[in-house]
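Annotated sample (chain length 277).
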Amino acid sequence: MLKVAKILYLRKPIFLKMADIKDEPKIEHTNIEQPEVVTESSDNETKVKVKKPIDPTLENMQAFYLKNKNLVNYVGGGLLLIIAAFSFFKFYYLPEQEAEASNEMFWAQNYFEKDSFAIALNGGKMVLSPDGQKQMQGFLQIADNYGVTKSGNLAHYYAGVCLLRTGKFDQAIEQLGQFNSSDAIVGPIAIGAIGDCNMELNKIDEAINYYLKAADKSRNSYTTPMFLKKAAFAYEQKGNFQEAINNYERIKREYGKSDEGREVEREIARLKAKGNL
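Output written by the structure step:
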């Protein structure tokens, strides 16, 4: 009887209290898009390929292109045209123009060094070139015809000096004003030449401004004391002896070993006596 009772006990269903049942974790379904599954079958085997979801960014780009197809094509074509034009200008047109301008500058500079400023400025002389005889161009023509080149820019400087030397001061200022240079010597000299033109036109205040600008453009022992001395002379012409002395003293203090520095003591003494200082 005990064995039977034991068997019946084991077969008897077990009832648990509701409090003894623990809550099982609930699985929440998310809205994560599942990759599409593509099944391929053949006689011998079945292959399952998983199709990757399309990147939303690519879909947006494709939609934008389809909506604005004409605009995108026009803009893209325009950019390609700009790039092509820039490449042509930089790698073909500009080097060719630079070579031509350099050849023309050779003859004009040759006459400039001989102090034949009118010929150097306006050209017109027949010269022998590798291609035979030709009429040379002057600095004015070179500046106009090859303005985008380095030689064309330099031609403005030479033209300005030629005009200064031939007494055409207003035209000289115009040409010198179009010249741009970061060179430590030529740059300040071009600015100082504008000061010379203004002195010739009796525009002393303008001349002083350009002389001081030239002096500080590139501080060195050649151009700086030279234009400080010119500024001192201009101040003296105005009767402002103290400012003239100040410029000479700066030369003495900063560039005492320069050619101008060797003469400043005498100039300072002269101006103090002249101005009763």
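Annotation: The radius of gyration is 44 Å.
Annotation: Residues 101 and 207 are 32 Å apart (CA to CA).
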